[in-house]
Amino acid sequence: MYTEEARIARVQGVVIVQATIDCEGSVTSVVVQQGLPMGLSEATVEAVRRWRFEPATLNGVPVSVYYNLTINFRIQ
After folding, report:
1. d(Cα 67, Cα 56) in Å, to the nearest integer?
2. How many CB atoms lie within 10 A of CB 3?
3. CATH number of the domain to which 10 belongs
4. In angstroms, rounded to a whole number, what is the distance separating the alpha carbons of residues 67 and 18?
5. How many domains does the chain divide into?
6. How confident is the model over 62-75, as pLDDT tens digits?
7. Residues 6+ apart with CB under 8 A from 9
8. 30: which residues sit within 8 A by CB, 6+ positions away?
9. Confidence of residue 76 (pLDDT cuts 50, 70, 90)
10. Is the distance from CB of 18 to CB of 27 less than 8 angstroms?
């Protein structure tokens, strides 16, 4: 997920997003709560939109939920 620009600039930190996960486990929206520069927030949103989750359930019935995700960017 690291952009080349951010890697060269050695940007590190955390991106926090709130994802809405529907009753089928698909991500329907992603909102950045805390971001990073140089395309890292945008790269996180693009990646999370492709992820699939096990649907949450309420009384055995799949439901939509909000899920906060913290993505750590660290250069090794």
Report:
1. 10
2. 17
3. 3.30.2420.10
4. 6
5. 1
6. 999 999 999 999 99
7. 38
8. 17, 18, 19, 20, 44, 45, 48, 49
9. confident
10. no
Written as one letter, the residue type at 29 is: S
The C-alpha torsion from 40 through 54 and 26 to 57, rounded to 10°, is -120
Domain range for 12 is: 4-73
Q: How many angstroms separate the Cα of 5 from the Cα of each of 15, 17, 48, 55, 76?
A: 16, 21, 20, 35, 16
Asked if residues 38 and 3 have their Cβ atoms less than 8 Å apart, the reply is: yes
User: Is the pLDDT reported for residue 16 higher than 90?
Assistant: yes
Q: What is the pTM of this model?
A: 0.91
The whole-number average pLDDT for the span 10-18 is 98
pLDDT tens, 38-68? 999 999 999 999 999 999 999 999 999 999 9
